[in-house]
Design brief:
This protein has 160 residues and is of the alpha+beta class. The protein is 40% helix and 11% strand. The protein has a 4-stranded antiparallel beta sheet with strand order 1-2-3-4, with no helix packed on it. Helix 2 packs across helix 3 and helix 3 packs across helix 4. 14% of the residues are buried. The mean pLDDT is 92.
Amino acid sequence: MKLASGLAPVVDLLRRGVPVGLGTDGCASNNNLDLIQEMDTAAKLQKLRYLDPTVLPATAALDLATRGSARVLGLEGRVGALSPGMMADLVVLDLDQPHLTPLYDPYSHLVYAAGGGDVQTVVVHGQVVVQDRRLLTFDLKETLGRTRELARALGAGAAR
């Protein structure tokens, strides 16, 4: 949407059996890395494209971000679902928030009401990497500081 480069006919692609996944871009075309928000946007854009509120329901949007993305990446059967023998990646949301209360449909809630800021715990390949909203695998302040330094250096190089 930011680049006005068009709208993928996701529903038609899925009907034709084309593997479709959902991911995030960087600042070049989106500035947001919130996959939960991207599920919301993807589902609503398809409803608008087809003028049909029933296309790409919340369950389908979640499938695009999980199983669909695994399929696209050639990782089906290894990631994308919580099943025995698959890599254990898990995101736990804090549902005790005003914008998430009351909860009627967990899928709809995840796709249309939650956001990245609601993430409480993240487990990647069986290792807890975020707990109580705190990063455990690296120093965030240090990383942000280094990133700012690199950005300044890149900006100075571009000005030459």
